[in-house]
Amino acid sequence: MAVIQSKIHLLEKEIERLKKLVYLDPLTNLYNRRGFLEISNNYFKSFTRDQKKRRHYEISNLAIIFLDLDNFKAINDRYGHALGDKVLKSLSKLLKQSLRSMDVIGRWGGEEFVILLVNISQSNAQRLAEKLRHKIESTKLARVSITASFGLVFPKKDKSLIELINQADKLMYRAKKLGKNKVICIK
Fold this sequence. Notes:
The structure is a single chain. By secondary structure, the protein is an alpha+beta fold. The protein has helices at 2-23, 33-53, 72-79, 81-98, 122-138, 161-177; strands at residues 62-69, 104-109, 112-118, 148-153, 183-186. It contains six helices and five strands; from the N terminus they run ααβααββαβαβ. The longest helix has 22 residues, at 2-23. The chain starts with a helix and ends with a strand. 35% of the residues are buried.
């Protein structure tokens, strides 16, 4: 019996290790795109079910932030990819420290990150996005000054999670076109 329990324990540890490989970004230790989508979809489905029961729509329970580091390629070109990786790790740490444990943070790809804010009003989500933008601007990440552009959206009826992420991504690109280091939001 002890041998079987030992093997079960080893298998459980191996399953956890494999889940990390599937769902976590190895550089930042944040969720990767797949992990972010799976976790966020659970929140999103719950939100859409609850939304159908409500009569008032002035407060959103969820918000999606899409952020991209400004001029990140120049950092990699000037200082090398090793320092660029340190910047990404530092940003990940800053995001984890700045957000609540219930919020979902993922590395979408490259220097792009997506955040699902849970149980938050639109005004508080806007304040939080601006606070994150300011923290990134005022903090030297791996001894490098950098800024980020943000897109912020709130769930609307009949929009999928992917559609909202794509909308937040477009808003982030609008922030870049308007001079970078901005938060652009659509209510």
